[in-house]
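lol ok so funny story. i was supposed to be doing the assay writeup but got distracted and ended up predicting the structure for this chain instead. priorities right. anyway since i did it might as well share w the group, maybe its usefull for someone
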Amino acid sequence: MKTHDFYYDLPEELIAQTPIERRDASRLLVLDRETGATEDRHFFDLPSYLRPGDCLVMNNSRVLPARLIGRREPSGGAVEVLLLRDLGGGVWKCLTKPGRKTHVGCALSFGGGELTATVAEAKEDGNKLVKFHYDGIFLEVLERLGKMPLPPYIKAELQDGERYQTVYSKVSGSAAAPTAGLHFTKELIASLEEKGVKTAYITLHVGLGTFRPVKADEIADHHMHSEFCMIDEQAADTINAARKNGGRIVCVGTTSSRTLESMAAEDGTIKAGSAWTDIFIYPGYRFKIMDALITNFHLPESTLIMLVSAFAGRENVLNAYAHAVKERYRFFSFGDAMLIR
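and the output, tada:
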């Protein structure tokens, strides 16, 4: 299949720049993947589509305030550092700007010297290995000095960093939010649990590769980025029990889907564990465990719209997206949601 097969026209004004005031007041487009039929609802209507015994699988990864603004020493020139991956021992793989001026040996300072760093190595892909120097706990320093690394299509300043976190975020490590979960409130989750819907929390740390465009003409030629994921015993037991008892596995977001499909056995059984996954799901893929998907609207020609198309059918998805554009749904990270069942 061609990358251009997953293109659609999107007016720029439909790209949501800020979150709406109430998380679960976002719109919900319900898509029947067998018939292609759609319904226009709101996210707070979700309980009417789930049954007792169904299992919601939710990614509890928490976004790091991974964008640091500081100075190069001794010149005082401005520098921006984006943390990509913790390599241990205070060393992180980073994206730096300006790249040419952050050469090996360059000293960096943030927060008036509260956090300092040295560029230790330059990689072939243009990224740098940066060694940080600090007192105390690095994540606490980062919470004070760092900013949220919002996607490149969001130009507005985020007033409240917690709006780019899910209400159940717990394990720090993502460079971007698992955005399908942004629509949930604690009250909505409680009402679903009261109804008998099970919840299982897994972790996949979202990397910036999720925004990387597919440049290959043939989608099978695209090299997928790698992300760390893990499932604990409690989540594995909850998911396996739900399947055994006839409940549907409802993934909240493509990250939850990729985690389950990466770690499930051929019969759909889940075992606790952790792994790096570079699974690339596109039409032709046979799903082992996911029965329904809650997801946002994704960029044209992205690996995410390809995953959704693998689950619901490319024609169904593109028709649903055309409907969403016509009805003025809000798109991407702070936008509205879909339930595909």
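The chain has two domains: 3-63+160-340, 67-145. The longest strand covers residues 78-88.
back to the writeup now i swear
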